[in-house]
Design brief:
The structure holds two protein chains of two kinds. Chain A is mostly helical. Chain A is built from ten helices and no strands. The chains are: A mainly alpha, B mainly alpha. At the A-B interface, helix 8, helix 9 and helix 10 of A face helix 5 and helix 6 of B.
Chain lengths: 237, 252
């Protein structure tokens, strides 16, 4: 977006180059606003802090609660950051230009979701071991927690992007997006916490990870279609 | 020139026009209303007074005569909403959008009814109002999906955009339907397996399942009546600027 486009001699851009360019642009734009970047992480930490204070600080009880709490907090943190995914592009009109480009929208959408995931889902996964210490999660559970988050959070980003695309044209889409997306998050939550609990009790967790991977595969194939359609509807409306 | 053979009757194509759809629904309405009334009244009297009591659960099992039909209908209604939404998205048919919009509140009501009757039945049988069982949870998700579709529909001002957006959302939510359907087979949970299957005879005597079948068919007829009433309302509301609606309203 930095170089002015020359209408006479437009360079033909391949799909891979488009993907890389969108990814780079989104990462660059997000990294410029560092405070917005850490907001989901701070939110994640704060929600985690509420549970020992609100429920019980007793280590044994917290350890039992930890898989669910960490997953719910990660889910809410992803949701919180979702609204801004297409918002700025929609406001300044670049989203419309992206939709008008001859390349498939799915590709652009995939790059944007990947950029979003790298800055939220991946970050949450990396912070998770710290949180698990705060909640007295047994050390055996930590690899399971990180693996399940690594496989589960991209699905959260993909599904959340559908909600973000549907509500991007609305003035206040914040609450609505959670209403739309939370029911669809429930399967990921179930298998994610299942994986952590299996890891804590020493049971094999490949079944849960396989299911999370299946959800991710399904999401990667179908969600970009839905996101593209939703974006077209929102922009034309 | 060889005339192309029509493989669908003419009225089927006419359904796509709001005006004709309004009239066709008006013609079908009394028949479905009578059928619904007879089936529901007959079914409920038979079910509550004459069907034999269950040998284990006694009389408390009789609530399945409301529970099973409403649960079946809640899922069928979602399917219909999603299919109508897809038709509206692909062929840009206004009537399909209106059908999808009219389906949502009916389906949400049916989901609430199924959850409520399930809870009332669960209290004496399982000993608690609610169990976090796969079937119950997936039914609750279905209710949330209905509510999400309705919320999205009312949040967007432009009617055609609202219809398209809710169609996309209902298509995405479609993944939940097989999960509800097969949750009792996939997970070994508290909820018993399906009462009716198309391929096998029901595992209960005819005096018990015939009234249930009547109730199911009656619920479908009731759904048709309620959908057509809502659809006619919606057509009038959206087409209020059309000449034929003005004529219709002035002639009354």
């Amino acid at each position: 977006m930095n170089q002015p486009l020359n209408p006479q001699r437009r360079p033909a851009i391949g799909m891979g180059a488009l993907f890389a360019a969108t990814l780079k642009r989104d990462l660059k734009l997000s990294l410029r606003r560092k405070s917005e970047l850490v907001n989901p992480l701070i939110f994640f930490l704060m929600v985690i802090t509420l549970f020992p204070l609100g429920v019980s600080p007793e280590p044994g009880f917290l350890a039992e609660l930890a898989p669910g709490v960490i997953w719910v907090a990660a889910l809410l943190a992803t949701l919180l950051s979702m609204d801004s995914l297409f918002r700025t592009d929609f406001d300044d009109g670049s989203l419309e230009q992206l939709l008008l480009s001859p390349q498939p929208v799915m590709l652009v959408v995939c790059a944007k979701v990947l950029a979003h995931w790298m800055l939220t889902g991946l970050a949450l996964t990396l912070v998770a071991p710290l949180i698990s210490v705060m909640l007295f999660l047994p050390a055996e559970g930590v690899p399971g927690l990180m693996l399940s988050l690594l496989l589960g959070t991209p699905t959260l980003s993909l599904v959340g992007a559908i909600g973000a695309a549907l509500t991007v044209g609305l003035k206040r889409g914040g609450v609505l997006i959670s209403l739309l997306v939370l029911p669809l998050y429930i399967p990921v939550l179930i298998f994610g916490t299942g994986a952590v609990q299996a890891a804590v009790t020493g049971l094999p967790l490949d079944g849960y990870l396989a299911l999370l991977g299946a959800l991710l595969a399904l999401g990667t194939v179908l969600a970009p279609l839905a996101i593209g359609a939703a974006l077209r509807i929102s922009v034309s409306g | 020139m060889v005339e192309k053979k029509k493989w669908l009757p003419r009225w089927f194509y006419q359904l796509a026009s709001p005006r004709w759809c309004y009239q066709i629904c008006g013609k079908l309405l009394p028949g479905f209303a009578v059928a619904a009334l007879i089936l529901l009244l007959g079914g409920i009297v038979w079910a509550l007074l004459f069907a034999p009591a269950d040998y284990q659960q006694g009389n408390s099992f009789r609530i399945i005569y409301l529970h099973v039909p409403s649960a079946i209908l809640a899922q069928s209604c979602y399917m219909m909403m999603a299919v109508a939404g897809a038709i509206g998205l692909i062929w840009k048919m206004k009537v399909a959008d209106m059908v999808a919009k009219s389906c949502a509140p009916i389906g949400a009501t049916m989901a609430v009814l199924a959850l409520l009757t399930g809870a009332i039945w669960g209290k004496p049988t399982w000993g608690s109002w609610w169990v976090w069982d796969a079937r119950l949870t997936s039914m609750l998700i279905l209710l949330f999906l209905y509510l999400g579709v309705m919320a999205l529909n009312s949040a967007i001002e432009s009617e055609s955009t609202a219809a398209q957006a809710s169609a996309v959302l209902s298509l995405v939510g479609l993944v939940n339907i097989p999960i509800i359907k097969y949750s009792v087979d996939w997970w070994n949970t508290l909820h018993q397996p399906a009462t009716f299957t198309l391929t096998e005879r029901p595992a209960m005597p005819a005096e018990m399942w015939v009234p249930l079948l009547m109730m199911v068919v009656g619920f479908y007829c009731f759904f048709a009546v309620s959908l057509m009433l809502r659809l006619r309302n919606e057509i009038l509301r959206r087409e209020r600027r059309a000449g034929w609606v003005r004529d219709l309203l002035l002639s009354k």
